[in-house]
TrEMBL record:
Residues 31-151 form the Gfo/Idh/MocA-like oxidoreductase N-terminal domain. It holds the Pfam family GFO_IDH_MocA. It comes from Somion occarium. InterPro entries: Gfo/Idh/MocA-like_OxRdtase_N (IPR000683), Gfo/Idh/MocA_domain (IPR050984), GFO_IDH_MocA-like_dom (IPR055170), NAD(P)-bd_dom_sf (IPR036291). The keyword NAD does not apply. Its EC number is 1.1.1.179. It is an enzyme of class 1 (oxidoreductase). Residues 176-253 form the GFO/IDH/MocA-like oxidoreductase domain. Keywords: Oxidoreductase. SUPFAM superfamilies: Glyceraldehyde-3-phosphate dehydrogenase-like, C-terminal domain, NAD(P)-binding Rossmann-fold domains. This is D-xylose 1-dehydrogenase (NADP(+), D-xylono-1,5-lactone-forming). Belongs to the Gfo/Idh/MocA family.
Length: 393
């Protein structure tokens, strides 16, 4: 159901605070999180979702600048803060903390995820999981070896509307042979915002691209290696073609009025199409517009619009949730379920994060752009052992 009132309520809950605060569970102790980086994303991405989760407590933040760290801790009423050059490691050395939110630039995700895992912390790492599929694989392998949970913060995947849209595709009402995908998304280079369209393409087709048919980019004026816009076409099994269009620089209307970012995914089938509007942040608003032609005559498309703000039954399951939950809140629910040994409603596997980056790497290669420099952090079992030794000494 869509109404301005429920939209206002939901957005207030997402960006300001939930309608009521959770009472800590008396049977299951809270998972204490530490946040690496006094990042902008941290409030919507974790701090506000945690306010309504009875099994989560945000314990500390670490920032390079001690003044920023203290101000951040004060603003969000966190017990502890770490500031200075060694702040991130100090947070990882805090024995109170069980899980770490890595809210740093993508190029630092590998290093700080590996260090967090070495310090025996579960990790919620922001998207993109790293800037190299090889290093992401290492991250997940190391987490598995340590028996720790790691999750890439691809929040949109946890939202009921997105699961519903996939259900529509899986139901077969849109024929998936000769299907075509079109993405037009504002904001973000391919390595960053590309994570979403690459993922949704792989998710909706339930397959991996077989080749990159074309890829072209517009370089940033200051750096020819950096793409500010990317257009690419990917081939999928069964003659399925997916097109992604990413543009950092959406022109102002009449040169004056900024446009709202467009984050739509369109699935084109022989007998109709479906567009999911604003799929990246579906809790802000979304609509699933389905148009399917009559099976016999092929004429007279039946149109319908679905909106799935409530965690009603999708894919035959009733999802846990509330009308005012953001996808970040659903994501947190799943992360906690996993840490607590419960089966989450939705999960993203290691293979998903690795395959996502492999596609991004192939698109860069096709476009003739060099791969992003990998993290130079040299993680070795020796480092791991020495951290373990220090811990048990
Ligand atoms: N899932 C989602 O919906 C969203 C995900 N993101 C992701 O979250 C991450 C953070 O993004 P965002 O919050 O927008 O970014 P910010 O610039 O607000 O935060 C980045 C943080 O990284 C730290 N940092 C460490 N080293 C550097 C460096 N060399 N240069 C700049 N910052 C550094 C800073 O921490 P310090 O406090 O120590 O200075 C800063 O707080 C990114 O990976 C981004 O892709 C962002 C928005 C939404
Ligand atoms: O991950 C993201 O999703 C939402 C966008 O607004 C944000 O810039 C991006 O980093």
């Amino acid at each position: 159901m869509f109404s301005w009132l429920s939209t206002a309520r939901r957005l207030y809950s997402v960006f300001v605070g939930p309608p009521s605060l959770a009472t800590p569970s008396s049977t299951s102790p809270p998972i204490k999180f530490g946040i690496l980086g006094a990042a902008k994303v941290a409030s919507t991405g974790l701090i506000i979702p945690a306010l309504s989760h009875p099994e989560v407590e945000i314990h500390a933040v670490a920032a390079r600048d001690p003044i920023r760290a203290e101000a951040f801790a004060k603003k969000y009423k966190l017990r502890t803060f770490y500031g200075g050059g060694d702040a991130y490691q100090k947070l990882l050395d805090d024995p109170e903390i069980q899980a770490v939110y890595v809210a740093l630039p993508g190029g630092l995700h590998y290093e700080w995820t590996m260090k967090a895992l070495a310090a025996n912390k579960h990790v919620l790492v922001e998207k993109p999981s790293s800037v190299s599929s090889e290093q992401t694989r290492e991250m997940f392998e190391f987490a598995q070896k340590k028996g720790l949970v790691i999750l890439e913060g691809l929040q949109y995947r946890f939202y009921p509307a997105i699961i519903r849209a996939k259900e529509i595709i899986d139901s077969g009402s849109l024929k998936t042979d000769d299907i075509r995908y079109t993405w037009e998304i504002g904001g973000g280079i391919f390595q960053d915002m590309g994570t979403y369209p690459v993922n949704v393409l792989r998710y909706f087709t339930s397959s991996e691209p077989t080749s990159v048919l074309s890829a072209s980019y517009t370089a940033h004026p200051n750096d020819p290696k950096v793409d500010q816009a990317m257009t690419t076409t990917l081939a999928f099994p069964g003659d399925v073609v997916g097109s992604i269009e990413l543009n950092f620089e959406i022109p102002y209307k009449f040169g004056l009025i900024p446009s709202l970012p467009k984050m739509d995914v369109t699935v084109k089938a022989e007998n109709g199409e479906m567009t999911v509007k604003f799929f990246v942040l579906p809790f802000v608003y979304h609509s699933i517009n389905v148009s399917v032609k009559d099976g016999q005559s092929g004429k007279g498309a039946k149109k319908r619009t679905e909106k799935v703000y409530s965690p009603t039954s999708v894919k035959g399951r009733t999802l846990k949730g509330e009308e005012w939950w953001a996808s970040y809140r659903y994501q947190l629910e799943a992360f906690v379920d996993k840490v607590k040994g419960r089966e989450p409603d939705t999960w993203l596997t290691a293979e998903e994060s690795i395959a996502n980056l492999q596609t991004i790497e192939k698109v860069y290669e096709k476009a003739g752009l060099p791969p992003r420099p990998k993290s130079t952090f040299a993680f070795s079992p020796i480092t791991d052992d020495s951290i373990e030794a220090k811990r048990t000494a």
